[in-house]
UniProtKB/TrEMBL annotation:
Key words, A-Z: Plasmid
Protein name: Uncharacterized protein
C-alpha cells in the first residue's frame, strides 16, 4: 500500500502592532491537515501561549490547499476557517 504522507508547511503569526507578523515556519509530515496541526501542537506547545494564527500549506498535492487556524482566546482551541484552494474554489 502506498504511503499517503504529505509535507505540510505551517506558518505561525502573532498579532503585533495591529497586524499579523509571521515568526515561525515549520514543515510537518502527516496524512491530513488536522493531523499536521496536532503533530505541530504537540511539538511546539510553547507557541500556543499567545494570540496566534496558523496557516497550513499543502505543497505536494494535486491542488495545493491552504487552511487557516485561529486560536480562540477563550477556549484556547483552534478554529479552522473555511479552506481556500489555490484556484479560489
Amino acid at each position: 500500500m502506498a504511503s499517503t504522507t504529505k509535507t505540510f508547511t505551517i506558518s505561525g503569526s502573532v498579532w503585533v502592532n495591529k497586524e499579523w507578523e509571521e515568526c515561525l515556519l515549520v514543515d510537518v509530515k502527516a496524512n491530513t491537515v488536522k493531523q499536521a496541526m496536532e503533530r505541530f501542537a504537540t511539538k511546539h506547545k510553547s507557541f500556543f501561549l499567545r494570540h496566534w494564527k496558523f496557516e497550513v500549506h499543502q505543497w505536494n498535492s494535486d491542488k495545493p490547499d491552504y487552511f487557516t487556524f485561529y486560536r480562540d482566546l477563550v477556549s484556547g482551541k483552534f478554529q479552522q476557517e473555511n479552506p481556500v484552494t489555490a484556484n479560489g474554489v
